[in-house]
Amino acid sequence: MAEEVLKSLEDIESYSFYGLWHWLSEANDLLDQIDSISLSKAPKTHEQLLLDQKDELLSAQTQLRRQMGAVLEEPLTRRERPKAEEFLEAQLRKLQSQASNDRMASAVQRVQALLAKVKTSSAAEAKEVRDIEEQLKQADAQWKELEPIYVKWQAGRHSFKSNSDLQSFQRRYEDAKKIRATAPERLEAALRRRRSTAPAEPPPPAPSAGWAAARKAPPKAAPSNSGRGAAAVALDQPKVKAKSSWTNGLTLAQRLRAEAAAQVRSPAPDVAKNDADGADDYFFWEETVRPPPPPVLPVPPVSAEKAPQDFVTKVTKSKGVPPTAPKKASLASMANGGRRWGRVEVEESVAESEEEPEVPPAAEREKIFTTSAKKKSKRKKKSDAMGAEDEVEESSATSSKSWVLTLQATVAHTVLEELLRRESWSFEEPEARSRLASLAERLPWQSPLGFLLPFSWSSFLALDVDGGPKRRSRRGESDALLRLRHNVPRLLPLYLTLVFGLLILHALSHFGLLMWIMALQTALLLLPLDQLPNFKASAQVQALQAVHLLLWIFFVRSLWQMHVLIKVSCVALVVGHAYSVSEVVKDDQ
User: Fold this and answer.
1) Which residue ranges does UniProt annotate as crossing the membrane (predicted)?
2) Mean pLDDT of the region 570-581
3) Confidence band of 418 (pLDDT split at 50, 70, 90)
């Protein structure tokens, strides 16, 4: 703790008055502890280290007090105000006891003025502190609501309508539990940090009226049609694109590919010649001079029969349907139609009619459908079989991993786990007595293997027997398997201790080695230290630890050599008992 107090001086200006008060209290406690240690004649190693740091702690105490005096100039919160008043009153009493000259009298007046200022000024908590307090308040309210339901659900006295309701409840319960566990520590850290004294930033100015605030331009007046022909007026009207299955069913990329196919398929030199020759025929009604047409791109030297047909076949995605040659509409048909006259619109309508794929006969469609259906069913069966194999492998791996974790949790925090470490075998002679007392406490006669029993034997015998869970018509794992997964890990130390007792009785019938090792462990536990001549206390403790390891080895050996029918009977009894009793809750942990 002394190192933490000294380390806090590195960034002392970042602490609030609350944080400075905390570290000053820690420094005062350490100095009081040093004063009591200095009276002892033979201090221990850690006490001597603390004595060596006395000067550094005194310097830290002085720095903390000075920083607290500087922070008192700022407004304090409701948590900091009582501590500040207590700090100033203590300083005032110290100064009044030493007020022998004018200098001390002026210091007393300054402290009194500062105390009056602290009592009148106040400041709000930081936003982080308020947020954490609000989270903690909401978590406490949710905990009062959810915790009784969770206890009933664990005991099997509450059920949910659906799995989604259960998962939602578990998420809310875990979130509230996590917040209640971590919020106090986060709140303490936030209270110790110094609040920012900078004024709050003003809100950003509203954006000026830009293009979004501009008015809509008034519509332009339509030009007068007097003195113009019907064809010229029709050219001035805005073009309305006709809706068809072509525009609704194809994407932009498909339309671009189709237009490129139509351009490649058309005979470019002839079209250019016809356009040049018949320019006056197409635009004889225009009053203005028509601009010259754009130059025609050269056609790549590709076969005129094979390449365009293959390209159009890919675009239309219809196998076996030959593309039709482009048709050029006559001037009479364009005049009678409701569309705008012109060569571009005619080619567009022709392209639309050309790109529509022909429907294959019914027999061919049925054949294609049945073939694809067979292939799809085979793939589906194969994927389903592979998915089932993956699920079986995943479930088996998860179950084996859960049993390994259960065994590890059973052996955890036992004497056996401690003896497998190197530190348990190296200790000094004065620690032998405390070591023996610890082993005697952890190896009682109720648990000679050193298990941490979740219940006493009387509570184990008084467990509620309900004959197994009620049957329910729901999918997934059965209630019996869930009951076994819940009860077996919690009662496994008791089951192993019972099996060990049966093996001791069996060894007693023929004076086996397991009985003698158990008797030797009991004798070493009951034998006081320094009773055997030429036998040190540490050697006696090490002998006890070695005998306990030997007891475990012979216990595992006896389990391995047990007859298979006895093994099956023991497993059946354990499973039957875990299935018959209601779900247990380890309250004594």
Assistant:
1) 492-519
2) 90
3) confident
Task: List Cα–Cα distances, 452 to 418, 455, 456, in angstroms.
Answer: 13, 9, 10
Sign of CA dihedral 20, 24, 25, 27: positive
Supply φ then ψ for residue 484, to 5 degrees. Answer: -65, -40
What is the C-alpha to C-alpha distance for residues 144 and 158, in angstroms, rounded to an integer? Answer: 17
Higher-pLDDT residue of 299, 174: 174
Distances (CA, A) of 83 to 89, 322, 509: 10, 95, 73
| pLDDT for 26 | 81
User: How many CA atoms does the CB half-sphere of 8 hold within 13 Å?
Assistant: 25
CA distances from 239 to 235, 242, 342 (A): 9, 9, 12
Q: Kindly give, in sequence order, each residue whose CB lies less than 8 Å from that of residue 158, ignoring residues fewer than 6 positions away.
A: 149, 152
pLDDT in tens, 434-454: 777 888 888 888 888 888 788
Residue 467: both structure tokens together: 């004959």
- Domain spans, the chain: 127-192, 245-323+343-373, 405-580
**What is residue 472's three-state secondary structure?**
coil
Q: Is 301 helix (H, G, I), strand (E, B) or coil?
A: coil
Centre a 10 Å sphere on the Cβ of residue 9 and count the other Cβ atoms it contains. 14
30, 57 Cβ separation under 8 angstroms: yes
Burial (CB count <10 Å: 0-12, 13-18, 19+), residue 491: buried
Residue with tokens 């030797």: 520
Q: Output the six-digit token pair for 204.
A: 């950003």
Mapped onto helix, strand or coil, the DSSP state of residue 489 is: helix
Identify which of 58, 66, 77 has the alpha carbon closest to the alpha carbon of residue 18.
Answer: 77
Extended beta strands in 197-313, E state: none
DSSP SS3 for 15: strand
pLDDT at res. 287: 43
Q: In sequence order, which ranges of 40-79 are alpha helices (DSSP H)? A: 45-52, 54-71
The identity of residue 439, as a single letter, is L
Alpha carbons 172 and 166: distance in angstroms, whole number? 10
Identity of the residue numbered 471: R
Q: Which residues contact 465 (CB under 8 A, 6 or more apart)?
A: 580, 581, 582
Distance in angstroms (rounded) separating the CA atoms of residues 574 and 490: 12
Query: Taking Cα atoms as reference points, which of 105, 94, 88 lies closest to residue 17?
Result: 88
Residues 418 and 442: beta-carbon distance below 8 Å: no
pLDDT digits over 59-115, tens only?
A: 887 888 888 777 777 778 888 878 888 888 887 787 777 656 666 777 777 888 877
**What are 451-475's pLDDT values in tens digits?**
878 878 888 888 888 888 887 766 6
CA distance 476 to 481: 10
Residue holding tokens 């009153």? 89
β-bridge mates for residue 193, sequence order: 15
Is residue 481 within 8 Å of 488, Cβ to Cβ? no
User: What is the rounded distance in angstroms from the CA atom of residue 457 to the CA atom of residue 453?
Assistant: 9
> Sign of the CA dihedral 322, 328, 333, 335?
positive
pTM of the model: 0.33
User: What would the mean pLDDT of 15-36 be, rounded to a whole number?
Assistant: 81
